[in-house]
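Sequence, please.
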């Protein structure tokens, strides 16, 4: 089992002192990766329903600092050596795919191949509106963009034609240091099918063990239907219960479901306390996987 810290670039960790504290603290404590989500902007008056809270509202109504993940990861990569960085997730349909390809490839090259791109279709219509991007057909646009990313990263001179992306004879440099894994985010059946069809991994950010087991099975079935290897899919889950004294047993249950990685929120948002708090997770849970 691999262990990661989710929402690593928010609140007190969005600035340089916090970034240094959580990135170095996670690496020293034996965490495999840092993950963080994104919102370019947070509209103050929205009717879209946030899918990860009971009341449909974003905790704190988006007032907390949230750094741009790609820029923040470039900083964090420069001060670490082994830690991986994953967007969990980047709202891909909001962005120009050629720009994302350039940014991701540059970040991967600078980090020595330590970057994975987690992507999803997004939920906040008002953010799309503010960016001047259509909310409709974002799922199809997302999938077309993934195809464009892979073409630009893998081909010396790329050509790609789809409903939402079209370019011919296009060269993108630098190429990534290694193939960038694409992780599909979302907790719906559509997301699971998408992960199997076009993803290297799947990150449902919520779900009961029964729901997750069904989604993992659906992703594997989708991979088979697409002529892909279902065993190559990597599954990531998130559960703050791993921070508790029974964290090892919690992680073991997710491993039994088929998960390869489990994410926890920062165990402290105090810049001075995050290092010791992460080390405590190592002593309670991570070190037992190394025995």
């Amino acid at each position: 089992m691999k262990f990661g810290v989710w929402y690593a670039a928010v609140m007190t960790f969005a600035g340089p002192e916090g970034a240094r504290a959580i990135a170095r603290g996670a690496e020293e404590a034996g965490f495999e990766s840092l993950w963080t989500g994104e919102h370019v902007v947070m509209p103050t008056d929205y009717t879209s329903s946030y899918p990860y809270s009971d009341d449909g509202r974003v905790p704190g109504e988006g007032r907390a600092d949230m750094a741009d993940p790609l820029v923040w990861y470039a900083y964090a990569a420069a001060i670490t050596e082994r830690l991986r960085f994953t967007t969990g997730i980047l709202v891909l349909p909001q962005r120009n795919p050629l720009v994302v390809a350039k940014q991701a490839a540059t970040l991967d090259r600078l980090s020595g191949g330590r970057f994975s791109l987690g992507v999803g279709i997004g939920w906040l219509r008002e953010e799309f509106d503010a960016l001047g991007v259509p909310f409709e057909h974002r799922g199809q646009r997302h999938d077309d963009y993934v195809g464009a990313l892979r073409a630009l990263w893998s081909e010396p001179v790329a050509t790609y034609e789809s409903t939402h992306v079209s370019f011919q004879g296009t060269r993108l440099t630098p190429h990534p240091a290694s193939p960038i894994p694409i992780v599909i985010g979302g907790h719906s059946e559509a997301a699971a099918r998408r992960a199997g069809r076009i993803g290297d991994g799947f990150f449902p950010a919520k779900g009961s063990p029964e729901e997750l087991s069904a989604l993992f099975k659906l992703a594997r079935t989708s991979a088979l239907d697409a002529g892909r290897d279902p065993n190559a899919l990597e599954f990531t889950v998130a559960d703050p219960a791993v921070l508790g004294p029974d964290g090892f047993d919690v992680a073991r249950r997710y491993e039994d479901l088929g998960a390869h990685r489990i994410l926890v929120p920062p165990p402290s948002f105090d810049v001075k306390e995050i290092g010791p708090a992460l080390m405590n997770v190592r002593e309670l849970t991570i070190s037992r996987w190394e025995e």
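The first strand starts at residue 2 and ends at 5.
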